[in-house]
Amino acid sequence: MSKLSSVLKKTGIAVAAAAMLVTMGAGTVVTQAKTSLPVYKVSLAKKYTDHQKDKRMEASVKIPKVKITGTDGKVMKSESEKLNAAISSYQNKFIKDYKKDVADVKKGEKGNESLTSGYKVVTDNDKMFCLRIDTVIAMGGSQSYAKIFSVDKKSGKQITLKNLFKKGSGYIDRISDNIKEQMRAQMKADENVMYWIDDPEVAESNFDAIAADQSFYLNDKGNIVICFNEGDVGPMSMGCPSFEIPHKVVSDILK
Predict the structure, then answer these.
(1) DSSP three-state, residue 248
(2) Distance between CA 206 and CA 194 in Å, rounded?
(3) CB contact at 8 A, 184 and 196
(4) Cβ 153 vs Cβ 130: under 8 Å
(5) Would you call 78 helix, strand, or coil by DSSP?
(6) Is 14 helix (H, G, I), strand (E, B) or coil?
(7) pTM beyond 0.85
(8) CA of 122: how far to CAs of 106, 137, 171, 237, in Å?
(9) Cα-Cα-Cα-Cα dihedral sign, residues 158, 161, 163, 164
(10) Residue 16 — pLDDT band, cuts 50, 70, 90?
(11) Cα four-point dihedral sign 164, 248, 4, 36
């Protein structure tokens, strides 16, 4: 069994030398100095705020900075910079779109738009570090986005879902089929739950399969959690759905 398979099978993953305190948003992750693993420290790098009272436009975007310190006590500069560049690029796109919307609102008109974006650490174990960015754009209705930046703990390199599985494993179909089962079960148990699945009238909108680089993280049980943006697989009222994939579903195809 691979090391990753072993980790994913454990319940309540713990890092022997890491005692963490996670404060969301503008907070910082504090980790004990002595560790046999790289240390990931998260702090607030930049906060973009804007309030256009006359146009009814406002924004609050908290962009984090991750500092990766290797086991030798030296900062892994290249890895840290690449990760931070990817994070800031993602959030800056929302800021750019917001600024354009503000400029497009003519004098005397009301844009009625609100942009908020923040972050939190969702995984920090002996294999992976995952940072989640949640963004909401409210403009009449609202649109929510969930983006996970997943990093191999030791190398400091970003990874995608496919990096967890053997080549040619068919992980997309395996995970997608399990998600469909969960959707059907949730809808059967609660009439207020709705996903776009098994509806012949809107066949083109029905959920078919996850993307090869679908956002994901590992939860405290070591299971893969698949995340979707609002509106990806169901009505806006479902928010940003997530599905925990039981380890037994993928145990034989993990690297």
Answers:
(1) helix
(2) 11
(3) no
(4) no
(5) helix
(6) coil
(7) no
(8) 41, 22, 22, 23
(9) positive
(10) very low
(11) positive
Give the pair of three-digit tokens for residue 131: 């940072």
Q: Could you write out the DSSP letters of every residue in 131-191?
A: EEEEEEEEESEEEEEEEEEEEETTT--B--GGGGB-TT--HHHHHHHHHHHHHHHHHHH-T
φ, ψ dihedrals at 163, nearest 5°: -65, -15
Q: Side by side, which strands form the sheet with 57-69?
A: 39-52, 57-69, 113-124, 128-139, 141-152
Is a pLDDT exceeding 90 seen at residue 148?
A: yes
Q: How many residues does the chain have?
A: 255
Q: Cβ neighbours of residue 45 under 8 Å, at least 6 residues apart? A: 63, 64, 65, 84, 88
Specify whether the CB–CB gap between 231 and 141 falls below 8 A. no
For residue 106, the 8-state DSSP code is P
Beta strands (DSSP E) in the chain are: 39-52, 57-69, 113-124, 128-139, 141-152, 216-218, 224-227, 242-245
